[in-house]
Amino acid sequence: MTDTAPTRAGFVALIGEPNAGKSTLTNRMVGAKVSIVTHKVQTTRARIRGVAMEGASQLIFVDTPGLFKPRRRLDRAMVKAAWGGAADADITVLLVEAHRGMTDGVRAILDGLADLPRGTTVALAINKIDRVEAPRLLALTQALNEAYAFAETFMISAEKGHGVVQLRKWLAQAVPEGPWLYPEDQIADLPMRMIAAEMTREKLTLRLHQELPYQLTVETEAWQERDDGSARIDQVIYVSRDGHKGIVLGHKGETIKSVSQAARADIEEFLGRKVHLFLQVKLRENWLEEAERYSEMGLDFKDGN
Ligand SMILES: Nc1nc2c(ncn2[C@@H]2O[C@H](COP(=O)(O)OP(=O)(O)OP(=O)(O)O)[C@@H](O)[C@H]2O)c(=O)[nH]1
Predict the structure, then answer these.
(1) Region of residue 101 (left: phi > 0; alpha: psi -120 to 50; beta: else)
(2) pLDDT by residue (tens digit) across 71-102?
(3) Span 227-245, pLDDT tens digits
(4) CATH number for domain 8-174, candidates 2.30.30.100, 2.60.120.1440, 3.40.50.300, 3.40.190.10
(5) Is the CB of 64 under 6 A from ligand 1?
(6) Protein residue closest via CA to atom 8 of ligand 1
(7) ipTM score here?
(8) Is the Cβ–Cβ distance between 146 and 116 less than 8 Å?
(9) Phi, psi angle pair for 69, to nearest 5°
């Protein structure tokens, strides 16, 4: 970073059909240091996937669930969350798979883009270019740009790394000027907190009724290293309705107890040391909204200012 360049920071929402390559791209952008890999399909909600530094810019990649044609109520809720993520982000990048081209799903997303707030910056990234020939790529680029006025078009292969640096550099100059939202030295620490929260969420998913886990958020609130080499981890499970509290706790607290034990075992295995895990259940209505979203995503604005 040069002394003169102003710092910049912003949220980048990656949207696209399931399998478009959002996770692969995030991991590429962010680099091994802070990437988080989860293999679950369509279980991600707007949450931070990783933080990338490019020069004086900090790019916070927000993962959204794949945008797909909503059929069930749950699907609709998830698609809504995906669009919510895009509307709140500073920049949205639409990922389209080169070899699949203009699918119905892509058309539906293009329709949805039209409803984003005016002034939202949307870039197009045609991914998996390693799978198609140039003429087809050009035709697709043209068709997509006729359908929507993208700020910029990139041709990339997230897997092979083609075009990823150009996209990252463009994003770096496109996010607003402002202080970094994460102090640089905290970036490396962030994924551990998120991985630990994700592990608890996974256990909740296994133990609760199908739809409930999507309405839960798990946050790691505190992480304390102890002298004996163990870690004390405090997490909060946020429920969106009061009635869900009891379900998460279970009869005589049995559900949360078994979640806690299983999550602790996973985290211990991951860290290779002893962990004391403390879980709390709290009510948070409208978790998708405004300020609350930031803390849900692990951000603390006190740190950012
Ligand atoms: N050939 C090729 N395959 C890719 C490329 N990018 C991603 N893939 C593959 O596409 C598949 C889906 O990639 P993901 O990154 O998991 O896609 P996603 O959009 O995060 O998927 P969801 O979380 O299900 O929405 C994986 O098998 C990747 O290896 C690419 O540039 N070229």
Answers:
(1) left
(2) 544 455 555 555 556 666 889 999 999 999 99
(3) 898 989 999 998 888 888 9
(4) 3.40.50.300
(5) no
(6) 21
(7) 0.97
(8) no
(9) -70, 115
